[in-house]
From TrEMBL:
Alphabetized InterPro entries for the sequence: A/G_cyclase, Adenylyl/Guanylyl_Cyclase_3/4, Nucleotide_cyclase
Recorded family membership: Belongs to the adenylyl cyclase class-3 family.
Protein name per its UniProtKB record: Adenylate/guanylate cyclase domain-containing protein
Originating organism: Rhodococcus globerulus
Stored Gene3D superfamilies: Nucleotide cyclase
Residues annotated as domain Guanylate cyclase: 179-288
UniProt cross-references to CDD domains, sorted A to Z: CHD (cd07302)
Length: 339
């Protein structure tokens, strides 16, 4: 067993220990119980949880929330009740916080993880239980320091932003195998010329809200949104395919809404400061721009990964030469509706 290759029971125990340390205790609430604690409906609690970028267990009786989770939910509801956050914008506020914190957490984990692996490499102890205790000790040393620094930077940004807006209210990196996707609104540029600011805001809010919920529910995360486009990532090929198809079927689904294009590519991806880089990102972007309105295009790597899944159908298209790629393999991804 290598230091980074723990057996499943040891790895599971380390994960549980780290979670309890970070969240102040074990999981003790179901979805219904945490909603009752905060005095809200389960649907509202789930909506806020998913908006922050987390998945909800398919089993409604699963014990998945800690006391800190319950206190945080109650804190959000209190802010809404006091008028600090309007009820109409609570999901948008939770989503904005979740997206920012998700990117920050990805970067911080790469720093902490690298340090812990370095420390373990220097240790001569190979006993799994001793390694587990060493990881917890290192975490107890590092995480409070990171939390303190993060709080300081946040407060400093609050002070800086307040100063700029007075009188106007209102190098760490890693490589991972990921599926990177883009979803964009077809004809966005011409569309904006025919919409007033309120209509455009409504369109973008519906686009971002629905796509973010689908991505979060399927264990992906939003990397960033830029105008008419959302960029996301996910580790599971099956979940990536589900995200793409659900976005096409459920986002901007009204008769008068513009159509969407979705492109996905799979492979080694550079994760740097919460953003993604590399040829996979380029391929996903090119597939998106090549896709016909209302369709999903994926690359050959992802096609191979989902080819045996009976939930999906693939159609191989003629390879294309696009900017930066001499031969772009492309497959149309559809849901298999046959019994």
């Amino acid at each position: 067993m290598s230091r980074s290759g723990f057996d499943a029971p040891t790895f599971s125990r380390i994960q549980s220990d780290v979670e309890e340390f970070l969240l102040g205790g074990p999981r003790c609430y179901t979805q219904s119980q945490i909603a009752e604690f905060a005095g809200v409906s389960r649907e509202r609690a789930d909506r806020l949880w998913v908006a922050m970028g987390f998945a909800v267990d398919d089993d409604p009786d699963a014990v998945m929330f800690t006391q800190q989770d319950a206190d945080a939910l109650q804190g959000i509801i209190t802010m809404v009740d006091r008028g600090i956050i309007s009820r109409s914008s609570e999901v948008a506020a939770a989503r904005a916080l979740g997206q920012s914190m998700s990117r920050l957490a990805e970067w911080q984990v790469s720093i902490i993880g690298t340090h812990i692996v370095d420390q373990l490499t220097e240790s001569a102890d190979d006993d799994p239980e001793a390694i587990r205790k060493q990881i917890l000790r290192l975490g107890a040393e590092i995480i409070p320091a990171v939390e303190s620094l993060q709080t300081y930077v946040w407060k400093r940004h609050i002070a800086s932003s307040t100063g700029r807006n007075v009188g106007n209210p209102g190098e760490e990196f890693s490589s991972r195998i990921l599926i990177v996707g883009f979803a964009d609104i077809v004809g966005y540029t011409s569309l904006t010329r025919g919409l007033d600011p309120t209509e455009l805001n409504d369109l973008l809010e519906r686009f971002e809200s629905a796509s973010t919920e689908i991505i979060g529910r399927n264990f992906g995360w939003v990397v960033k949104t830029v105008g008419d486009e959302v960029m996301f990532a996910v580790e599971s090929p099956r979940h990536a395919a589900e995200i793409a198809l659900q976005i096409q079927s459920a986002v901007l689904a009204d008769h008068d809404d513009p159509q969407l294009r979705v492109g996905l590519a799979m492979g080694p991806t550079l994760v740097r400061f919460g953003d993604l880089y590399g040829s996979v990102v380029n391929k996903a972007a090119r597939l998106t721009s090549s896709a016909r309105p209302g369709t999903v295009l994926i690359d050959s790597e992802l096609a191979a990964a989902v080819s045996d899944d009976a939930n999906f159908k693939l159609r191989h298209l003629r390879p294309r030469r696009v900017r930066g790629i001499d031969r772009l393999e492309q497959y149309v991804l559809r849901r298999n509706l046959e019994p």
